[in-house]
Amino acid sequence: MFGFEEPSPHAHLEHLCINLCAETMQHFYNTHIFKSSVESCRDEGIVCDTEVDYVDNVPCIDLISSLRTGLLSMLDAECSVRGTAESYVTKLKVQHRSSTRLETKPTAEPHDPRMFLIRHFAGRVEYDTTDFLDTNRDVVPDDLVGVFYKHTCNFGFATHLFGSELKALYAQQQAPRGLSFRISPTSHSDLLNGDEPVSTLTQDFHTRLDNLLRTLVHARPHFVRCIRSNGTEAARSFDRATVVRQIRSLQVLETVNLMASGFPHRMRFKQFNARYRMLAPFRLLRRSEDKALEDCQLILKYAMEQPPVLDGSVTLAWAPGKRHVFLSEGIRQHLEHLRTEIRHKSATLMQATWRGWWWRKKMGNGGAKRSKIPGLQQAPLPNNKTTPNSAAQNKAASSTMAALAAVAAAAPISVPRLSAKTTSLGIGGTVARPRPQPIAGTPPPDPQEKCDQKIIQQTCNLFGLDLERPPPVPPSRSYTITGNSKISYPQNRVMKMNFPEEGQSEAPQLKKGEAVTVRGHLMVEHKGQSFHVPFQFMTLSK
């Protein structure tokens, strides 16, 4: 993924797409870090003394990617009517005359009617629309595609890349015949008998951006802010103005203030108690659903009595809500430090107890066993003569060691419970080095609580997505690879199993052993009906 682009002197369509992606990622960051934290505190009645003032870039995203009036949608409409760059900019001026993010009077002198300027979150960028329409059409003439025909081209890789286009081009006798094809990868369904492609470059980019956003919404993101030291890409050069501008645009100071004084972390009471219950005396914990809040407050009370590991400038504030306990960054680090310290002491106690038991067991099995233990030598007797008194003493000592070993083996070892992921025993009873754990940010949330539904709804509304409908199937190749051969569509296949599988709510629409016709990627026809069937349900007919 590219970062924010600010080329000089002017930007083009590819820079506009890259900056739209940067704006979208910044909006996702603002929603995940600032907006969700503020709204969660407000919903559960938590009063936070820290006011986080962040810049909302939704107007800029709407300006570029709105469904009907966005810059990209208007560009697609202009391509369909074969307009010009001047007419495109003129329509932008009329449609967005009240927008504060768009400026149609660029800094270039003399005034160029093909220029416009957008105020992005990271700065102002001036765009030149001279090549916008040609770049968005993303087409290549058929005579250029015909150069890669396999009978006249020795570069097989290029022939493979344009396989769908060449198949459609040479389906008739006359070739070339003045057709146009997409430069970007297309599927056979996009080639409508040699007509111009049905999608544009910006539409493909928007589809990929939507897929990326869907993945991020259902993930647990971790953000890394990258600051470049100068704008000329020079080594060992630090430009103070460039760094300050990036820190302000990326809202690093607002993030630091939220982490230091606000409540950026929240956990449900049950998950909090399960993670930090070892910080409070076990006998005082209620360990029940209706007493989860009391257990949470008890754990935090004992944690606050411990000396803090951070300096005094970091707050150790926390607040109980209706369903969550809200934590500052300071108290979260304090809790994690105490938890790690207790687990380390518990692991040491377990290891010492086990080693002591193991040595006592070895020493309680007689002198023959003792002599085989490395580093343990039996002390010689003062003389070689065996007296009745010495024999009785040796016999008593042996019985005493055996009794101690039996007691140690039968006694329960009361030590705190540890996970097998942190401590492991090697061969011969040696303790292996614990595997380092990854640095965790916010403690793990409820496994059943994937994400905030409000955020999903707002994001889908922003990009015009429908939660009730699945996303469109992306374009695919016009063939499949089986073994070392390439098989084009349509294909005759046989169902290996019922679809949908048994156990689902609906009855099977395709049964095992039925013959179907595969028209494309996931597209299957049977008895005049079309289905979306994954390939693992079918096999090639013999």
Automatic annotation (TrEMBL):
Keyword Nuclease: no
Pro residues: compositionally biased ranges: 435-446
InterPro entries (alphabetical): IQ_motif_EF-hand-BS, Kinesin_motor_dom_sf, Myosin_head_motor_dom-like, P-loop_NTPase
Any GO molecular function: nucleotide binding
Domain Myosin motor: 1-340
Record's GO cellular component terms: cytosol; myosin complex
Keywords associated with the record: Actin-binding, ATP-binding, Motor protein, Myosin, Nucleotide-binding
Stretches the record annotates as Actin-binding: 209-231
SMART domains assigned: MYSc
GO biological process, one term: positive regulation of growth
Keyword Nucleus: no
Skewed-composition ranges (Polar residues): 380-395
Signal peptide: none
Disordered: annotated segments: 368-395, 426-450, 465-484
Similarity section: Belongs to the TRAFAC class myosin-kinesin ATPase superfamily. Myosin family.
Protein known as: LD47348p
Organism: Drosophila melanogaster (Fruit fly)
